[in-house]
Every structure is written in C-alpha cells, then in structure tokens.
C-alpha cells in the first residue's frame, strides 16, 4: 500500500466501562485504514491516585472483543488503551490493544512518575521489548503517553523497522504541557524520520491537541482541546523522500 488513511479520535473516556465500549462503535469512522483512540479509553483513570485494578480486563475481555468487532465491521485496524491485570493484583498494566486488520498488545513501559503524579503506585510497568505491528504495509511502533518523553524507545522501534509511531495519550493539562506535547511529538518524528500519530484525550482535564506529524516535522493535522476526530493520509513517497533528504538514521556514529 502506497498510502495509509488514518483517523485519530480525540474523545474523553468516562468512569463507566460499558458506556466507553459503546463509544467505540459510535466514534470509529468508516474509510480509515488505521483508527487511534486515546490511552485508558476503556475506563478513565479517575481521580489522581485512584485504584484502577477493579477495572482491569483481560486482552480477550469485553473491551478488546468489542474493539475487534467494530474494527472488523469497519474493515480497519483500531488501537485503544485499557487496563489489564498483571502479576500484581493491585497494579494492572496500562495496555494498548490493536484489533482488526492487525493484532497486537503493548503494555506501557514508562510510568508517569512526574509532575507530581505517581503512576507506578497504581500501575505495573510493561516489559521493555518494543512492540510493532504491520498495518496496510506500514510498520507501526506502539508507545503510550509518557513514553513520548523517552527518545530511546522511539529509536528502538525505528531500529526494528517502524515507519509510523502511534502514541495514544491522556496528557494531563497544565502549564507548558501543550508546548511539551507538540515539541516532543515533532521531535520524535524529525529525529527518526517517521510519521507520528499522537491521539490525546480532550480538555479540560487533558491537553487535547492530537497530532499527525510527517517525517520532516510538518503537522498534517492537529486538533484543539475539544472532542473531535482528525484525519490524514500518510504517503510512502513522503517517508522515502524525507529519509533521502535527511538521512540521519544512516549517518549515526553512536
């Protein structure tokens, strides 16, 4: 496939799991090859520091099953975030599930112990193995929210062939946060010459500003902080041209 049609769903998840599952059907658009929902879409985090373990589900549970049903019905691949039981019953994984034309599971590596939060008190970190999946002939690497601040994960995914990075997020609002988000999304795209699809939850609690950025750092689509769906087309020719123009991956010496 020479191009990939993508849609990023910037919509808030609530505290009722069943209602969030219904949103998958309501919000997944037709006509996209890849649809990306935000982090923790199966059930919001709740108040800071809340125990989310009662809402953890297996990756073949109700949320992932509905995600697969919707993806199959739309003829697409869908990515969305959920909580999954880990070996520690009090600290589940923060997990991305990919269903539809491709299937994968990614457990968030870097937990948000920053800006006054302690995600590791309530969640378990996933294994450090990068996770990639093929979608329509493009190699897609999976990251979640705070992972964006760690360039070594993005580079590890690219070293394994990633051409697109998908970053579902619930990027908490606050001073400098939108600026950090936009800067980091564009940096990961530019330094790795990849497309980046960064899908966030909307304001007022989160920062919104879902982004699609191309391998030279041009913003192909951007939301504001309201609930919305943004779309873009990723062209392989754009990727190839960027890597010829800026062969930074080939020029590395370290």
Describe the structure.
The chain has 254 residues and is of the alpha/beta class. The chain has a single domain, classed as Nitrilase/N-carbamoyl-D-aminoacid amidohydrolase, CATH 3.60.110.10. It is 23% helix and 26% strand. It contains five helices and twelve strands. Strands 5-4-3-2-1-12 form a six-stranded mixed β-sheet. Strand 8, helix 4 and strand 9 form a beta-alpha-beta unit. The longest helix has 16 residues. The two termini are 33 Å apart. The model has no long low-confidence stretch (mean pLDDT 97). Pfam families: CN_hydrolase (PF00795). One of its GO terms (molecular function) is hydrolase activity.
Task: Summarize the SSE layout with pairings.
Elements: E1 3-10, H1 17-27, E2 34-36, H2 62-74, E3 77-84, E4 93-100, E5 104-107, E6 132-135, E7 138-142, H3 151-159, E8 164-169, H4 177-192, E9 195-200, E10 211-213, E11 219-222, E12 228-235, H5 236-245
Parallel strand pairs: 1-2, 2-3, 7-8, 8-9
Antiparallel strand pairs: 1-12, 3-4, 4-5, 6-7, 9-10, 10-11
Put the structure in a nutshell.
It contains five helices and twelve strands. By secondary structure, it is of the alpha/beta class.
Descriptors for this entry?
six-stranded mixed β-sheet, Nitrilase/N-carbamoyl-D-aminoacid amidohydrolase, globular, 254 residues, 12 strands, alpha/beta, 5 helices
């Amino acid at each position: 496939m020479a191009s990939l049609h993508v849609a990023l769903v910037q919509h808030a998840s609530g505290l009722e799991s069943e209602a969030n599952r219904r949103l998958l059907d309501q919000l997944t658009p037709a006509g996209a090859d890849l649809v990306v929902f935000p982090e923790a879409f199966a059930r919001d985090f709740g108040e800071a520091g809340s125990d989310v373990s009662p809402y953890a589900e297996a990756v073949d549970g109700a949320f992932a099953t509905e995600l697969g049903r919707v993806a199959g019905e739309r003829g697409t691949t869908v990515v969305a975030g959920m909580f999954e039981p880990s070996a520690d019953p009090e600290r589940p994984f923060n997990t991305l599930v990919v269903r539809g034309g491709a299937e994968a599971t990614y457990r968030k590596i870097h937990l948000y112990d920053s800006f006054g939060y302690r995600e590791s008190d309530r969640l378990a970190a996933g294994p450090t193995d990068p996770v990639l999946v093929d979608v329509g002939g493009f190699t897609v690497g999976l990251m979640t929210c705070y992972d964006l601040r760690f360039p070594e994960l993005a580079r590890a995914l690219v070293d394994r062939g990633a051409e697109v990075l998908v970053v579902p997020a619930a990027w908490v609002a606050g001073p400098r946060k939108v600026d950090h988000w936009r800067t980091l999304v564009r940096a990961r795209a530019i330094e790795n010459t990849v497309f980046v699809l960064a899908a966030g939850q909307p304001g007022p609690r989160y920062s919104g500003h879902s982004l699609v950025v191309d391998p030279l750092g041009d913003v192909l689509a951007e939301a504001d902080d309201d609930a919305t769906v943004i779309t873009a087309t990723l062209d392989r020719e754009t990727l190839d041209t960027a890597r010829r123009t800026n062969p930074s991956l080939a020029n590395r010496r370290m």
